[in-house]
Amino acid sequence: MALGLFLAFLYAAGTSMVLPTPLEASLAAVRLAPAWAVIAVAVLGKFVGAYLVFLLGVRLKRLPSVKEWQGRNRFGQKLLEFGKRWVDKYGAPALFFCLLIPGFPDTGAVYLLALTGGRPLAFALATAAAGAVRLSLTYFGIWGATQALS
Known about the structure:
Blueprint: H1 2-17, H2 35-60, H3 64-72, H4 74-98, H5 107-116, H6 120-149
Helix pairs in contact: 1-2, 2-5, 2-6, 3-4, 4-5, 4-6
């Protein structure tokens, strides 16, 4: 059970940091541990991973080499300008609603907003809350389908 929960935590943190895969795959650990525990641990992993990425983003955007790259690269400049406008206009609630898309690999959105946003806690909470909703809905959908078929 503990191994399944640990793997669910690592996978969820990884989806925020490096893995461009959907968070719902962490529900595979339900075979090893109770569903509520897997969802709770995966949401905690999602929060920790997203918070670390957002802290890193706050530090990275202050580096002279990042500012220099943005000045040289037109695509990077446009992408970061879009992210900045999006963050200024909509903020963390918009990230929450964007990440509610089932099966959406949210690593790219987290990195873009980490480089343009300035509120790590708010954005990490939005990421974790969206993950909690997605995992719960997916689990109840799978559970309901198996109940209907049996």
